[in-house]
């Protein structure tokens, strides 16, 4: 025990400067964390944010044995740290939340790069990258993407309804059925589940796939998967309202379908990851 305590003490003394910088950075940005947690609580789109930091810490911890010290510091890390601090100052001054939060992650990443050195940082870079998924999408991007995704989901659902023999008429993001009017709201655009699916795809790809191309393919697959399962949900709601009862579109079953569709998206993603691993084994 005394030997372990002595090792920790020597380590802290040797790397005291980066620890002081990290502590000061986190203390100064407590208000930023409070606002961020508030967004996670208020907006179900980003409730996964509570898991991001613990997962990032775990990802770093699981590769701790691979880090080699002493390691030469990487001066470019200080550049990223300074840029992050400048971004924090301007973000707070302009009350621009995304800039502030992104700059905080950039500053922490820069500090990690400086302290760990380039060779060590390459082994744990994903733990720092994964922190980005705790940041809500900027409002201007969110609302710019929502309407096109709403319209696409509405058009696709209406076209499939015609194929399966359900009479329907579309005007904008509204589908008119014989006894029911289905409005495709922002929550039904597919963007709600996309943010969480992107984080999960990145994590699954990093943990289960090797190489560079396959994890990227899995990550990008989150976009069509999110859109596809959302169209399936709208189709299920429309067919249920037409063939069974309009109450299906407004009842607990509609809310439950959102959960089931998300589970379906996870299953599809895991199957795709399995296929990508299989293709890797065939090429070896």
Cα-to-Cα separation, first versus last residue: 46 Å
C-alpha-based Rg, rounded: 23 Å
The ordered H/E elements are HHHHHHHHEEEHHH
Bin the helical content: over 70%
**DSSP helix count?**
11
The strands making up the biggest β-sheet line up spatially as 1-2-3
Average pLDDT score = 85
Q: How many domain modules?
A: 2
> How many beta-strand elements?
3
Structural class: mainly alpha
Q: Which sheet architecture does the biggest sheet show?
A: 3 strands, antiparallel
The parts where pLDDT drops under 50 for at least 5 residues are none
- The fraction of residues assigned to DSSP E strands is under 5%
What is the general shape? elongated
Task: Walk me through this protein's architecture.
The protein has 284 residues and is mostly helical. It folds into two domains: 2-134, no CATH class; 140-283, no CATH class. Helix content is 74%, strand content 4%. It is built from eleven helices and three strands. It has helices at 2-14, 16-28, 30-42, 49-61, 75-94, 97-116, 118-129, 139-163, 191-208, 213-243, 252-283, and strands at 169-171, 174-177, 180-183. Strands 1-2-3 form a three-stranded antiparallel sheet, covered by helices on one side. α4 runs antiparallel to α7. It is elongated, with a radius of gyration of 23 Å. The model has no long low-confidence stretch (mean pLDDT 85).
């Amino acid at each position: 025990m005394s030997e372990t305590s002595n090792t920790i003490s020597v380590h802290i003394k040797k790397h005291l400067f980066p620890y002081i910088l990290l502590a000061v950075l986190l203390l100064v940005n407590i208000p930023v964390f409070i606002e961020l947690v508030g967004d996670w609580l208020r907006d179900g789109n980003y409730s996964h944010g509570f898991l991001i930091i613990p997962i990032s810490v775990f990802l770093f911890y699981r590769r701790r044995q691979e880090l080699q010290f002493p390691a030469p510091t990487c001066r470019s890390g200080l550049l990223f740290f300074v840029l992050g601090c400048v971004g924090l100052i301007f973000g707070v001054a302009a009350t621009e939340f995304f800039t502030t939060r992104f700059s905080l992650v950039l500053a922490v990443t820069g500090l990690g790069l400086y302290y760990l050195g380039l060779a060590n940082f390459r082994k744990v870079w994903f733990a720092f990258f994964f922190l980005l998924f705790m940041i809500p999408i900027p409002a201007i991007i969110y609302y710019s993407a929502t309407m096109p995704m709403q319209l696409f989901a509405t058009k696709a659902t209406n076209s499939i309804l015609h194929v399966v023999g359900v009479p329907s008429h579309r005007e904008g993001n509204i589908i008119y059925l014989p006894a029911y009017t289905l409005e495709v709201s922002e929550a039904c655009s597919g963007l709600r589940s996309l943010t969480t699916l992107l984080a999960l795809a990145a994590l699954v790809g990093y943990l289960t796939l090797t190489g560079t191309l396959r994890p990227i393919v899995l990550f990008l697959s989150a976009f069509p998967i999110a859109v596809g399962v959302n169209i399936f949900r709208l189709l299920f709601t429309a067919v249920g309202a037409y063939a069974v009862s309009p109450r299906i579109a407004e009842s607990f079953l509609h809310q439950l379908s959102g959960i089931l569709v998300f589970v379906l998206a996870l299953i599809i993603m895991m199957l795709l990851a399995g296929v990508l691993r299989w293709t890797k084994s065939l090429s070896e």
